[in-house]
Structures are given as C-alpha cells and as structure tokens.
Specification:
Elements lengths: L1 H88 L2
Length: about 90
C-alpha cells in the first residue's frame, strides 16, 4: 500500500511539474502577445498621425492647384478678351 501511495505521489508530482511548465509557457506566450499588441497599437497611432499629416498635405496641394488653375483661367480669359478687342479694333 505504501508503494501505491508513493507511486501516486510521484505521478502527481510529475503532473504538477508538467502543469507548472505549461503555465510558465503560457505566461511567456501571453507576455509576448501583450508586447506585440502594444507594438501594433503604437504603430496604429503612428500610422494614424502620418495619415492625418498626409491628408493635410494633399488637401493643401489641392487647394494650391485650385488657386493656380483659377489664376491660369483668369489669365486665359484676359488673353482671349485682349485678342477679341484687338480683332475688333483692326476692323
């Protein structure tokens, strides 16, 4: 009977050791996952900031292009008006 108890206790000790190792492994994996999640979260914040800057830059360039197109359209209009006036004057 004592042998049975000793064998049972040894089996339980082995299982306890295995469970402890599994627990440590799971803790390491959880820590690694948490670190990766923190890294991804940081990257998302950085990407969101960069995207906002890029959107502002694109918007500013579009505004500049619209202003330049307006200026060019007025210049073409003035040239066309001047040409029409010159054509009327030469008749």
């Amino acid at each position: 009977m004592a042998v049975t108890i000793v064998v049972s206790l040894l089996g339980l000790a082995v299982q306890w050791g295995t469970l402890g190792a599994d627990l440590r492994n799971l803790e390491r994996r959880a820590t690694a996952t948490e670190a990766e999640l923190a890294r991804v979260s940081s990257v998302q914040v950085t990407e969101a900031t960069q995207l906002a800057r890029l959107e502002a830059l694109v918007e500013a360039r579009f505004d500049g292009m619209a202003a330049e197109l307006g200026r060019l359209a007025r210049a073409v209009e003035r040239l066309t008006d001047a040409r029409s006036a010159t054509a009327r004057d030469s008749r």
